[in-house]
């Protein structure tokens, strides 16, 4: 049984309009000019010093996107942190913690609940073990992190490309297979800001074939195993070959259909698909309705689902960045530090 994600009709039409320059996109185009003017004005305000970017004592790398919706930034952040750890650096991560129910600046710990700190920060902490702080102001989150962990040498910001108060020494811009969409700014298109701002600056990562973006192509696939709540693993082939119960695949991400397609690629054939809204908090989820199924989900969903369904299985997403990206990244990294003080470990994954 396949369940289609229930989006409002207007949202479905808007997402379709963002793929090409059709009638609806052109109808909304005047509004995109107004939006672009506001974006430009805000940037001018910071450029002229009427609002200031606040200094931090350590370098900051921002991983963000210019296209609305999830593009897979968090797996890139995790890979970057692992790479920097192999270089011997002490890393911290900051995030807004989208979807959390709290508003204060918080440190993510092993005891944190995803609804308090956000599902993505919770996942980053569990996957990397580095200090992770969330806050509405990423500058405040960074300062709190440095106060609690003064040995931190570099901060990675999960999102924050448009958070101009946050200083950054390197931007990494991530795109998915949509590329630039129809190339229009919101609401006529998916762009949060004009892409030309990033020409010649930062590093670009994207999936699919998008020669107009330049940069580097990354590959995403699911791991060949699933995780249990206790951290143990089970081969995905065993899940497919000997399911104790019919499989129900669920995903509360921006594009659940992508996860479902990735599951099918290695031969996983769920009996039912359950797409849910992005960052769904599972507060209204009723496990008893699905007790006849073996639940299988994304890691991001698992941090919220396991307290309710401890037997659910999570399939990790493997993000493969090319060697050429790591070489370019390490060159940028070397320029951020005194060469005599920068630890040198493995420089490629």
Account of the protein in words:
The protein is an alpha/beta fold. It has two domains: 60-218 and 321-336, Rossmann fold (3-Layer(aba) Sandwich); 222-318. It is 31% helix and 18% strand. It contains ten helices and 16 strands. The chain has an eight-stranded mixed sheet with strand order 3-4-2-5-1-6-7-8, with helices on both faces. A four-stranded parallel sheet has the order 13-12-14-15. A two-stranded antiparallel sheet has the order 9-16. Strand 10 (225-227) and strand 11 (233-235) form a beta hairpin. Helix 3 packs parallel to helix 5 (119-128) and helix 5 (119-128) packs across helix 9. The longest helix is centred in the N-terminal third of the chain and has 25 residues, at 23-47. It is globular and about 65 Å long.
Index terms:
disordered C terminus; 349 residues; 4-stranded parallel β-sheet; 2 domains; alpha/beta; Rossmann fold; 18% strand
């Amino acid at each position: 049984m396949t369940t289609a994600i229930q989006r409002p009709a207007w949202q479905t039409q808007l997402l379709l309009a963002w793929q090409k320059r059709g009638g609806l996109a052109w109808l909304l185009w005047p509004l995109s000019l107004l939006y672009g003017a506001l974006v430009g004005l805000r940037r001018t305000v910071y450029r002229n010093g009427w609002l200031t970017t606040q200094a931090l004592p350590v370098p900051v790398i921002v991983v963000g996107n210019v296209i609305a919706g999830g593009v897979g930034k968090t797996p890139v952040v995790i890979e970057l942190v692992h790479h920097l750890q192999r270089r011997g650096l002490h890393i911290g991560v900051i995030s807004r913690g989208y979807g959390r129910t709290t508003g204060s600046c918080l440190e993510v710990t092993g005891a944190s609940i995803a609804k308090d700190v956000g599902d993505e920060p919770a996942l980053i902490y569990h996957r990397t073990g580095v200090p992770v702080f969330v806050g509405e102001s990423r500058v405040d989150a960074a300062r709190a992190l440095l106060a609690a962990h003064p040995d931190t040498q570099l901060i990675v910001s999960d999102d924050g490309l448009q958070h101009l108060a946050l200083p950054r020494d390197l931007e990494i811009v991530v795109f998915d297979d949509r590329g630039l969409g129809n190339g229009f700014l919101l609401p006529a298109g998916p762009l949060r800001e004009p892409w030309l701002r990033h020409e010649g600056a930062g590093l670009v990562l994207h999936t699919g074939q998008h020669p107009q973006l330049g940069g580097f192509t990354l590959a995403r696939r699911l791991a060949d195993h699933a995780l249990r709540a206790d951290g143990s693993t089970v081969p995905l082939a065993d899940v497919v070959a000997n399911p104790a119960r019919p499989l129900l695949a669920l995903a509360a991400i921006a594009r659940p259909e992508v996860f479902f397609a990735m599951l099918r690629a290695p031969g996983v054939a769920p009996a039912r698909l359950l797409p849910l809204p992005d960052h769904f908090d599972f507060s209204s989820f009723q496990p008893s309705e699905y007790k006849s199924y073996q639940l299988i989900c994304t890691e991001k969903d698992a941090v919220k689902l396991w307290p309710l369904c401890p037997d659910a299985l999570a399939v990790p997403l493997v993000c493969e960045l090319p060697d050429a990206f790591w070489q370019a990244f390490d060159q940028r990294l070397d320029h951020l530090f005194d060469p005599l003080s920068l630890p040198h470990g493995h420089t490629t994954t």
